[in-house]
């Protein structure tokens, strides 16, 4: 079994270490365009799909290898984008805190403006000051519940990002720039697991709606967690994923 795991905004592949070490199989957890020390990669939707294609080519996976696509938040957006472009590649998809896109064009335009302003602030403030601000936003603040050792590692990894890279990611692949995939996800027939934090009411509501649209989807809301359940409460998330994969 091969799992490609795609991290969230400001994150990195190491964020999936608690899952990979327990669940097993071959995991590849790359840094997405705009993240890590490389800030020049194309972060656009087309560039992101091409980047994932190159990763798969480089791994030279056998046709018989079971291929699992996992994504969290921004990474879930990238995962859905690739799955809708190349649905025959994946045997199963796992999406944590996913949003297929903003449907209303006025709202999309407003989000592009907000993402551009946030990108400007990253370049103006620098990484350390931006992260201090970002981690106090309501959606991200719950990550303070992550175990201290994992939280320290995550913080150190976030500081390896560059201001230019994250700003580019926001401008090219923020929710205002990424395509609305709601009209396309109904064609994804592979088994799909949707995971959200029970306290993250916005994304739990989105997952409940996605479950009705996706032909073969199940949804689990993890108790006492918010937007990043796989690190806020990694043990129950591991069990949910293991149960799902055992059926594939």
Task: Give a description of the structure.
It contains 11 helices and 6 strands. With 248 residues, it is of the alpha/beta class. A 6-stranded parallel β-sheet has the order 2-1-3-4-5-6, sandwiched between helices. Helix 2 crosses helix 3, helix 4 crosses helix 5 and helix 4 packs antiparallel against helix 8. The radius of gyration is 17 Å and the shape is globular.
Class from secondary-structure proportions: alpha/beta
Helix content: 40-55%
The secondary-structure element order is EHEHEHEHHHHHEHEHH
Give the C-alpha Rg: 17 Å
The portion of residues forming beta strands comes to 5-15%
Q: Can you count the beta strands?
A: 6
Mean pLDDT: 94
Query: How are strands sequenced across the largest beta sheet?
Result: 2-1-3-4-5-6
Which stretches of 5+ consecutive residues score pLDDT under 50? none
* Shape label: globular
Continuous helix count: 11
What's the story with the biggest beta sheet? 6 strands, parallel
Cα distance spanning the termini: 10 Å
Characterize this entry briefly:
This protein is α/β, with parallel strands linked by helices. The chain contains eleven helices and six strands.
